[in-house]
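Note to self: the last two entries modelled the partners one at a time, which told us nothing about the interface. This time every component goes in together.
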Amino acid sequence: MSPKDATGSHGNPAPMSLGELVRQKRVLVLCGPGGVGKTTTSAALGLAGAQAGRRVLVLTIDPARRLADALGLALASPTPQPVPADRLRALGLDLGEGGTGTLDAWMLDPKVVFERVIRVLGTPEQADKILATKLFSHLSELASGMLEYTAGEALYAFAAEGRYDLIVLDTPPSRNALDFLDAPERLSAFLEDSILKVFIPKEGSRFMAGASRLVGNVFGRVFGDGFMTDLSVFFQAFGGLFGGMRAHSDGVAKLLASDASAFVLVTSPDEDALREAAFFQKELARRKLPFAGFVLNRSLAKFAAWPHPSEFGHKDPAASRAIGLLNAFANEERAEAEKHDRQLAELRTLAGEQAIAVAAPMLLDTSDPLAGLVTLARELT
Amino acid sequence: MRPPDSSSTENSVLADLFSRRLLVVTGKGGTGKTTIASALVRRASAMGKRVIACEVGRDASSPSPLLGLLAPGRAASNEPQTLEGTIAHVVLRGEDGVRAFLRETLPFKFMAERALKVDAVRRFIDAAPAFAEMGVLFRGMQLLDEKRRDGSSVYDLMVLDAPASGHTLAFASLPETILKVFSIGPIATAARAGIELIGNPRTTTVVTTTLPEALPVSEAVELYAGLRQRGLDVGAIVANQLPHDPFTPAERALLDTVLPREVLGRRALVRIANANDALARLRLLGAPLLEVRAHAASGAALVATIEQGLAGAAA
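The predicted structure of the combined assembly is written out below.
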């Protein structure tokens, strides 16, 4: 290929390694299909950031709570929880020069975040009114994108707060991760003025008035009067908050599109997962979001160099019989390792010159999840 | 490890599953949920049930992986279509359910169509998944209620390839949630019917799929607890992709002493050990456990192999 076009939109000469990303970025967003180990990868990158002396928050919106499992944290909590520094040191980690590195993790609670948004943006009276409605208490079930919207809000709040140098955001499986990017818009479709018009008839074109009447009629009949009252209290109190919510959303969108952020696509050697990752890369490009690279997770790529059991001939007949049985598995694993090597090469081509592709090995010892994360962090960076 | 698919328990578990009206198959992404759902559809049909395979779709262009396994190349439809013999398939769309619901609720049928044509209503339904999901549930109930001329049900059994597990929990408690917000009126009536269907173990049971590894099993245990807590019956847990294990425990211990840690074949040994631990943990739950082996096949061929495995005891 000819030398890079200096007028390209991103002028970076060489793509950053994951090690550089966790040292330099403020936000890392991990996306990918379900079941590829995204949450574990997020935790490992967070750990790597802490090792580099940064104050890190790993924010997961995966309801599977795997991150809590891996980090040994309690499942639900209203605020981020620190992974105790002595636990990290016990695993032989130094936390950067002067031990400044910290690792916090939080499994997002949409209600906590949304309540905070309302308290921050509204007057105390407004907030109390909204929080008292039935609609608010069931909003996460009733309105789509609450989880994704509040993830954006949480990101906004934590980034603005300045308590963390790096926020690693673990998104739900990729189809939903797209939702995460669209969430502010979709939630505002539910909450915003345009919908308000429907419930609180205003002057307008004759057609709109007709439509409103019909809609009011339909909803009144279907939902019953109690709900309509609840709804109008909710929306009236909410009226003034949209501007603030919109400003936050714009702030998140700007932060995610900026140089301070990077998107990492996690995939597994599974063909479907690879296809989805490729699809996601295009999607990021379309949205002009900064794509940093692929992680081929749970790969055997490095195993190809391991010795074959047949090299360990044994005099003991029982051992040699067992080794004989293992040979077939070893052959399979070698073939698979070679396939993963090829997949990694393909991902490198796909990543192009501005991004990277890294293989993360399948973790064989899962007895201590945190120790596994340390291994993974080392391999990734 | 006990060789899978080898006892008659599988058959009685299946007969029990297929005696219900609605079988919800769920599990984390990557656990083979759709493959297992397809195999169950085929097995139910082979055991004489008129079965309708369902998956949830947003619109016409949504992928339909279940149909892809049951009848590769066939175009999906939101109207039931017969695939072969006693197997039918349908894509459940929230919008269809909402339409059906509105037609039943509003005094004039044309009002439902008119209402759905109003942009704000469409966007409202789109933005409020609870309504789309109630629509899915309503549509499902409608299909289960369909009768032949002789009064018997058109479908004995509905197998739903449900969205991934976290979502399924929300879906399962949806009617309850709806009922808290709308305590009276037509929505409440529909929600109560939903609770009656889903909450009754004689009509509905859940099959969860998991992989025999530490983390997936932790998730399966959590899902099991969540489903039970919401009053749902768990008819079976499927431990999928169990590794082939030709070793005795003594042989595996021996290999650990004579081979280095880093050796090809190590992953297989680790997998076997993990699978044994996983099965032990799953057995503790007390729900019927279906053990399905890992197979090299994929797609429709894999479904056929698993279905034969499930049928094994009958042969």
